[in-house]
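EI: anyone free to look at a 128-residue chain?
SC: sure, send it
EI:
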Amino acid sequence: MEITQIVGFGLVAAVLVVILRQYKPEIALLVSLAAGITLFMLVLGKIGAIVEVLKDLSSRANVNLVYLGVILKIVGIAYIADFGAQLCRDAGEGALAAKIEFAAKILILVLAIPIVMAVLDILMKILG
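SC: here you go
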């Protein structure tokens, strides 16, 4: 039932933003930002449970927790960048949204280097 509340909140916020955009576009943008942040905060608590499950799975599989941390950072960067880019697009700043996505891709590549190196080391050990 939680998803129905989230969708309902989103729809009410969307209608409010559409109405406000005609008369006060700057307030419509603020309402859109507040609604987006509220929706993000509503699901933020669920992430902790997912992280605990992933930690448990990685310890069972004898995967180094450092790699799990890097993967979680990558996922976090992707979600936050997407959220920020969507907010920029809602504000009519598509170019800024594209730059946020580009910066996130660069950060993800930088964070992924240790994982790629570890995979290459494993492959070299297997082949050599």
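EI: Residues 54 and 60 are 10 Å apart (CA to CA).
SC: 👍
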